[in-house]
């Protein structure tokens, strides 16, 4: 998880000027002729992502200027300072001018996230430029978010050969130890004895035993329960995925990775909440005892589920975990899962679609998402589609035929296991398909920063 954090203040830090295109002319009036000639020679226009070191005496850089573009250009992207940070020469920089105060925290976070490298299997070239936390920015709070996001990325990027249910459990145990949290794990046949039948059924065909991870932290404040889908690899089961669809299935535990990253942010920030994290950790494998299409399972809640596709397994393991979460009647339940391809068809990889009927939560989350450059998109629990998940011979159908509204029907399925309004479900992708500022190709957290701020507001009441 190599992640350069903020540099300590130093007198040798180079000043970094942030210049947008509307303000370029005014800024140029403050610069000497030699600097202007240098910038003109390099074609500096203040465009978003431009980065130019400024020459000092003897040829060594005496500072740098980065382009902040126009309002329109910034509206089409995120983490604008990060786009330039990777282009700067090795040095420690301090913001000298031009960065709007209301954007300082997000841009500073973007700089840190741009320095993320996944190095478990190969040494990567580090980002040379480091940043002193801008004035007015809580460096520790931003660092907590960055390290939580790095944890999420590391977990998703690790292949299933090294990130099975046992490895995911160990990652949770390491996090619990770091923050003095309590953790309990129910696994293998104990899942049947403790009434988690669908978690056991989905995971029983794999060599590595299925389990339910239960982590707790905090003893005061609102009771927040995070439930993350931990399918460490998804072959599709007996409804075997084609090879092209199986290639990224190491990321099918992205929901678990996201809630662990969010849990770190909450605990490292010291939020006054009673946090619980539930992760059903399984592999959806193929063997002689794999569950079959046509099987009817009885869930922890007592609802029966007809299996019409073994590749719709995530909602099954989440159902038992959500029922378990509901039994303590928390103030808020949040589930996060790489649940449906339909969500990606609807909104693409950049947005985190979510479902929630709690108006207060929705308002807080939407505001936080904008402030944190962590976009979300509300989807409907559309009640008329309830009949689509009712097969007739069982209470529920895990994979309605027809292909319509796949993300909505999955969310409706999950809602059957939660008996409260204060429930939010996030159908995330968990993967950055190509390099972008502060988001290299690979595993990525979605909605966690927006959720952190939302939960912080809840805890402050």
From TrEMBL:
UniProt source species: Roseobacter cerasinus
Protein name in UniProt: Leucyl aminopeptidase
Gene3D superfamilies the record matches: Leucine Aminopeptidase, subunit E, domain 1, Zn peptidases
Residues that span the membrane, as ranges: none
GO CC annotations, alphabetized: cytoplasm
Molecular function terms, GO-annotated: manganese ion binding; metalloaminopeptidase activity
SUPFAM superfamilies: Macro domain-like, Zn-dependent exopeptidases
Any one GO biological process: proteolysis
Coiled coil: none
Assigned keywords, A-Z: Aminopeptidase, Hydrolase, Manganese, Protease
Span of domain Cytosol aminopeptidase: 309-316
